Amino acid sequence: MSTMAEASIYTGPWVDWSRGIIVGSTITLSARSASVLTAFLALFVTVVGSCLWRILSFLAHQCSASPDAKDGIYHQHQLVFRNTGSPFEATKSFTEIAWYWRKNVRRPWTRSLPLALFALVFLLAFGAASILTSLVTRAAGAQRLIVSDDCGYWSFDESATLEQRTLAMQYKDLNDTLVAAEYTRQCYDQNTSLNNKLRCGMYTTQSIPWSSGDTDCPFGPSICAVPQAFKMDTGLIDSHSDLGINAPHAGRVGFRKVTTCSPLTVKDEFVSVITSTGTDGLGVEGDRIRKYHYGAYLGAAVDTNTTYLYNQHAFIDGFGYEVNSLQVPLDTTNFLPIPELNPTDADLTIIFLAANAIKYNHPTSDPFFSANFYVDLGSYMGTNLSYFSADEYVSAMACADQYQYCNVEDNTLCTPLTGYQQAWTALGTSKLNLNDVQYTIASRIALSSRSLSTFHSISGRGASALRAQETIYDRVQQVPLPDHQWQIELANWFEISLAKLQHAVVEYAAPSVKTEDMPVGAYLQSPVDIVSKAMCSSQKVAFTGSTISFSVLGVAIILAVGGAIVLLHLVLEPLVGWMQRRFRWGEFRRARWIMDDKFQVQRMAFEEAAMGGEWTNLDGGVPVTAQGDVVFGGLGGVDLAAPRLGKEWADKKDEDVASEVATPPDFEESSTADMVHAAEGCPDQSTLRSQYQAYRKPMYQALPGQESSLAR
C-alpha cells in the first residue's frame, strides 16, 4: 500500500504557523512559475543596484564639487561619477585614470584606487545580492501543504457483514503496520537514517522524540520476571510541530503516549501441562499441551481459563520463532485478565514468544529470549554441532499502553493518563477548555491512536515483528543477543506506533488508498463541518515535489526596499537641483553637475568648435541645436590618429584672416599722405600678410594636419 495514493503539493499563498503570520507567510509555486519569479527578482535587484550606484555617484560628485580651479585628474573623476552608470565601468575608469596620470600628477594611485575599490566592492556586493535573492526560498522553509481530491477518515461500513468489516480492518491495520515498520527501520534508527534522507524526508519531523528508562513493574510483583520494568514516554507531542497539522498556537493540542512493559513469569501457577487425547482439538494423541493462565476468554469454545496454548511437539517440528499477542482494552468484556495483570488505568497487551526449533550459537541471558540450555552434539568433520536452546518453551511479556491529551495553551489542562477509549472520552469534557479547532485536531489524533497500542505493532506479522529475526539463518541465531534484547524489541514496537501516528495524520489529508480501491466493508468518511474540511488543506509535509516556496516577507522586503531606491534615484537629482535653485544653496554644485554631463560636455566642445550653431537647454539633461536639421561634426580633414574637433573652425578663421589682410579697415578713406607714407615707408602687401599670420598663429594654432590652411 502506497503512502499517498492521489496527492499533490498545494500551490498558492499560505501561512506556516511555525513562524507566525508575518514571517510564516509563504507562497508556493510550481517549478516553472518559481523560475519566472526568481529571474524577475534577480533582474529587479540588478536594476536596483544600478539605481543605488547612480545615487551614490550623485552624492560623491556633489560632495566633491568645487567652484575653484582643479587639475585634470579631479575633473576626470567628476566625469566618471557623473556619467558612469555601472560600478564595473567606474572601476575600470578610475584604474585607467590612475595609470595614464601616473607621470603627470602627484599621488595618482592614492587618489584613484580608493574610488576604484569602492566601485569594485559595490559591484561585488550587489552581484552577491542578486544571487542571494534565492534566500527568500530558503527563508520559506522546506515544508509544504499537501492536498488531495479525497480527504477524511477510513471507516467501516455497518451495512457490510462482520467478516467483510473484519477483513477490511485487518487489511488496513497490517498494511499500516508494514509501512510504519519499514519507515521506522530506515528513519528512526540513527545509524541508517543518514543514508535514507529521501525516504525519511516525508513528515514534518523525521522521527517523534521519546525517552525511556527503568521503572517499577506496573503489574503484580509476583508475575514480573525482572526487578525493573521498561518505560517509554513520548512526552507531549505537539500537533503542529511534531505532527504537521498547520495551525496557530491557539489551535494546537498536545498528545502523549506512555508504554510500560515487563517480561512475565512462565512458571508455577501461571502454567499448566496436559496431554492431548487426540479428540480435544489441541493436537494428536499424546501431545503435551502447555496452558498459560493470564486471563480468561469469556465464552471460549475450548478453555475459558486459558490465555495461550502451546503444543510442545512444535519444538521438534522445525519451526522458527513464533510471536502472538492479544489486546485487552480497559472497556473490554470478552477477556478478563488475572488480578496481577489488570491495570486500572491502561490498555493491556500480552505477547507470547515461542523459540521452537531455533538454535543459538551463543548463550543468551535476556529474560525474553533466555537460551542457556546446552545441547552437546559434539562435532563432525571439524564442525561444532552443539548449540544452545531456549530455557522455556514459551516466554511472555506484558505491556501497559496509556494516552493523554493536553491543551497547549495551558499544559496543566490535561486528560488523565489512561487507556485509549477513556482518554478520548475525556476530550469531550469541559476540563480541557478546547476550542473547536483544538477539539477537531484532538479527535483526528484520537481516531488515529486507535491502532497505536503495542498489540497493533505486532499482530499479524509473526516472526517478522522481531528484530532478533533479522539475524536468523536456517533457524540458527547467528549473533549473541544482548541481555537487553527485550528492550530493543519493545523500543522497535514503540517506534512503529509513533510512525503509524505520523502516517495516520497525513493520511487524513491524503488517503493511502484510492476510494475505488478500498476493500469491501470500508469507505472514506468525508468531513462535514467547516473546521474538519479546513483540516484537509492544513497538513504539512517535508517533501517539496516540483515546487518552490517563497517567503512573502522576503519578497516584500526586496520589492519595498528596491522600489524605494528606484524612486529615490528618480527624484533625488531634480529635487536637489530645485532646492539648490530655490534656496541659493550650492548653486556651483548644480552647475558642476550640469557641466560634467556627457551631453553638456559634448555640447560645449561643439560650441567651442563653432559647430551646430546656437544651442538651447543648456542647463537641462539633453542640449539641442536651436536650428533644426543642422549637420556638423564630419570627419573630413580630421587626423584619425589624433582626432579632435576644430577643422570647420580653423577653416573659418583662415578665411577671416585673409579677408582682413586684403582689405584693411578704413583703407579707402585714408588720406593721400597716409597713402604716400605707406608707399614710402611701409612694407608691401605680402610682407604685411606674413606678419599678420605670425601674429595670429599663436592665438589660432592649427590642429595637426591643418597647417596648410593657415599658411594660405
Verbal overview:
Strands 6, 7, 8, 9, 14, 16, 22 and 23 form an eight-stranded antiparallel beta sheet that branches. A three-stranded antiparallel beta sheet has the order 1-4-27, with helices on one face. A three-stranded antiparallel beta sheet has the order 2-3-28. The relative contact order is 0.13. Mean pLDDT is 85; it is low at 665-682 and 695-712. It is α+β, with helices and mostly antiparallel strands and 712 residues long. It has three domains: 8-142 and 552-582; 153-501 and 517-525, no CATH class; 597-612 and 622-710, no CATH class. The protein is built from 21 helices and 30 strands.
- Radius of gyration computed on alpha carbons: 47 Å
The fraction of residues in strands falls at 15-25%
What is the count of distinct domains? Answer: 3
Structural class: alpha+beta
Give the rounded overall mean pLDDT.
85
Overall morphology: elongated
Low-confidence stretches: 665-682, 695-712
Most strands sheet: 8 strands, antiparallel
Helix content: 25-40%
Q: How many H/I helices?
A: 21
What is the terminal-to-terminal distance? 105 Å
Number of strands: 30
Region (Disordered): 652-674
Transmembrane segments: 34-56, 112-136, 548-572
Keywords: Membrane, Transmembrane, Transmembrane helix
In short:
The protein has 21 helices and 30 strands. By secondary structure, the chain is an alpha+beta fold.
SSE map:
Elements: E1 8-9, E2 12-15, H1 20-23, E3 25-30, H2 31-64, H3 72-83, H4 87-100, H5 108-131, H6 135-138, E4 144-147, E5 153-156, H7 162-188, H8 190-193, H9 197-200, E6 211-215, E7 229-233, E8 237-238, E9 253-264, E10 271-275, E11 288-292, E12 295-297, E13 308-311, E14 322-328, E15 335-337, E16 347-354, E17 359-360, E18 373-375, E19 379-380, E20 383-384, E21 387-389, E22 394-407, E23 410-414, H10 420-427, H11 436-448, H12 454-458, E24 472-473, E25 476-477, H13 485-509, E26 522-525, H14 530-535, E27 539-541, E28 547-551, H15 552-582, H16 587-595, H17 598-608, E29 615-616, E30 624-625, H18 647-662, H19 672-681, H20 685-696, H21 707-710
Parallel strand pairs: 17-25
Antiparallel strand pairs: 1-4, 2-3, 3-28, 4-27, 5-26, 6-7, 7-9, 8-9, 9-22, 10-11, 11-13, 12-15, 14-16, 16-22, 18-21, 19-20, 22-23, 24-25, 29-30
Keywords: Membrane, Transmembrane, Transmembrane helix
Region (Disordered): 652-674
Transmembrane segments: 34-56, 112-136, 548-572
